[in-house]
Design goal:
Structural class: mainly beta
Helix content: under 10%
Shape: globular
Distance between the termini: 41 Å
Largest sheet: 5 strands, mixed
């Protein structure tokens, strides 16, 4: 009996220590958490309401989601069911963009195609009345002239310049702009929305937006994307590997390891997909994953895409955006590190300009790490120490598989630094 009591007491002590270690850390400063843009947009939508507004006195909000300065929303109610026709006039008022929405009494009207640095004229027409508004826009920064860009009439022509995405009309005037930095070229989805790869909080993300800047879907990526191809509800993403992604759930349906680097998806057939770089093409059998490669010199070019200003006459709805979770556990380093003889932050540590942030899904470490450095980030709590390799200026650690409070240490070559900060997951 006495032996059982001793064992029980020992187990209770161990459980208590574990629970205490789960909550207590040796650091005293909590890592800052970055709010994702897709989450901040939910707060912005609180102001996108038609309730209490009329055609005579509407709720007009410029740049409703903060990233599309040449867009707006006009919101109001009517006491009767009515279709809504809008006309957005050109800079010289000689032409206009037009769209008609289905009958309703509550109206959320997105306004696209506003000319930069201009008092833009907009007409809103119901079954019974018409109202004219003026929306003033600011000048948009641009780096090069768009005069020589090939454009289509009555379309919004998308152009990437200096990692910024612009929309120009048939007169080469800027009438749309996405202010965040983009990577590569935009991709037009079958539903009329745009896929963009962005550098989001020091990591790559793939987002689906409309022309108001609203983010509908987002997934964080492990590497840069070179090309995209849509197939029904899935996407093929060409990066260091070829990935088939279910764009409704974010689930990886298939993954193909590539022996070489490729930058272009040439075509997709029933049972095969062909990818290319400047010197060769490779066709992958999607069933058995066998490859056949032929030497072929390709001129890899990107074309500007042109899209309709409005998809159809479906009434605009405010729906929550979705962030697809990355359920991959970040691999641990093979390096064994004992947290003894660690140092306080000194001038040498400060010279690396190290920054650690937390997002909803990840831990983001940035710093001026050199290729010649042997660097690691260590997350430590009672009975749980995680060591991760730092191989570049930006290191992303997925929070999946982590739980509780961790003190953070950084090892650079022969020095271990106690950062005095912790992360709570």
């Amino acid at each position: 009996m006495k032996k059982i009591l001793i064992i029980s007491s020992f187990l209770m002590i161990m459980i208590s220590c574990t629970m205490l270690g789960y909550k207590i850390v040796s650091a005293n400063e909590k890592v800052d958490e970055i709010e994702e843009k897709i989450d901040s947009q939910k707060n912005q939508e609180k102001y996108l309401t038609p309730y209490g507004y009329t055609l005579e006195n509407p709720n007009i909000i410029k740049n409703p989601y903060g990233d599309s300065p040449l867009s707006a929303m006009i919101l109001f109610e009517t006491s009767y069911q009515t279709k809504i026709t809008i006309k957005i006039y050109s800079q010289d008022n000689t032409s206009f963009i037009e769209n008609t929405y289905k009958e309703d009494t509550k109206h959320i009207i997105p306004i696209y195609g506003l000319a930069e640095n201009n008092e833009n004229k907009i007409e809103v027409i119901t079954n019974k009345e018409k109202k004219t508004y003026s929306i003033k826009t600011e000048k948009v920064e641009k780096f090069n002239s768009f005069e020589n860009i090939e454009v289509q009439s009555n379309k919004l022509n998308l152009v990437v310049d200096n990692s910024k995405l612009y929309g120009i009309d048939s007169n080469h005037n800027i009438i749309w702009y996405y202010k965040n930095k983009v990577e590569g070229s935009p991709y037009l989805l079958q539903n009329g929305n745009i896929l963009l790869e962005i550098n989001n909080n020091q990591r790559y993300s793939l987002i689906e937006i409309d022309l108001s800047g609203k983010i509908y879907k987002q997934i964080n990526l492990e590497s840069k994307i070179y090309d995209i191809l849509e197939k029904k509800d899935s996407l093929y993403l060409l990066s260091n590997n070829l990935i088939e992604l279910d764009w409704q759930t974010g689930q990886v349906l298939d993954k193909y390891s590539l022996k070489n680097n490729y930058t272009k998806i040439v075509e997709l057939k029933d049972n095969s997909i062909t990818i290319a770089n400047e010197t060769q093409e490779t066709t992958i059998n999607l069933k058995n994953k066998k490859e056949s490669t032929s030497k072929k010199r390709n001129q890899i070019t990107t074309k500007n895409i042109s899209i309709n200003y409005y998809k159809d006459n479906t009434n605009y709805k405010l729906i929550n955006g979705v962030t697809f979770q990355n359920n991959n556990i970040t691999p641990l380093s093979k390096k064994e590190i004992l947290l003894v003889n660690y140092k306080k932050i000194d001038t040498k540590y400060k010279s690396y300009n190290i920054n650690i942030k937390k997002t909803k899904e990840t831990i983001v470490l940035t710093g001026n790490f050199k290729d010649s450095d042997e660097s690691y980030i260590i997350l430590d709590k009672f009975l749980d120490k995680r060591v991760y390799d730092v191989k570049s200026k930006t290191t992303i650690i997925n929070q999946y598989g982590l739980s509780g409070k961790y003190s953070i240490y950084i090892k650079i070559n022969n020095n271990i630094y106690k950062t005095n900060i912790y992360i709570d997951i």
